[in-house]
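User: I'm writing a short methods note and want a consistent example. For N-acetyltransferase domain-containing protein, I'll paste the sequence; you return only the structure tokens, no commentary, since I'll be parsing the reply automatically.
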Amino acid sequence: MPISIAMNVEEINVGSCQVAELFPTISPEIVVREARIEDCWEVAETHCSSFFPEYSFPLDFVLRIDRLVGMLFGFSIPKGCKRTCLVAVTGSSGEDSFFIGSDDFKIGTLDGKISLNKGYVAGILTVDTVADFLPRKGPLRQRRTGIAYISNVAVREKFRRKGIAKRLIAKAEAKAKTWGCRAIALHCDLNNLGATKLYTNQGFKCIKVPEGANWPHPKIAADVRFNFMMKLLNSPSSSQVI
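Assistant:
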């Protein structure tokens, strides 16, 4: 049952489920880390195969190119904001790898190499502090700070039900803490009961949107509705206002 809050984190009652199953037992061959330029095609492939499995050639290829370009040139964010893409990769991804590009070629501060290996990225997640999908603050509608936002959580079908999404979420929370965030939020499709259960078991709470409020949310399709969910990252006794 959703809970209603006035955007005050002390009202988010994070119980013991916040830490339960945070580090599930999965194959030791899976490693969660920040994405590198060499991972871009695999990230695009994982994103598209997870969210748009019904697409076929040539549309699926065009979509993958669009996601690839978005990742390569999506590092530009508002001043003071943070964003990173996390990947869960198979432990053998660094062995017998084949790349195009060179260490001398740079995209931003990252090595400009792209891996031509296939299938080594098991899951992906993006976390940022850009606050595009968080309600604005005050009459001037200022961008909210201190809240990280999770999006684009996807796990390849053959790697599902192995605790990989939980590992990605745990890594995102750890990253958000290093950014000084007090809480972390996300939107979850109301019809995706499995995802809702996953986030609830990780300590996220459904936040009731005030009646008549026009809070921003992802625009996927006209008939898709979302739960806005949030989790406190520091002491439940905190009284800081989000």
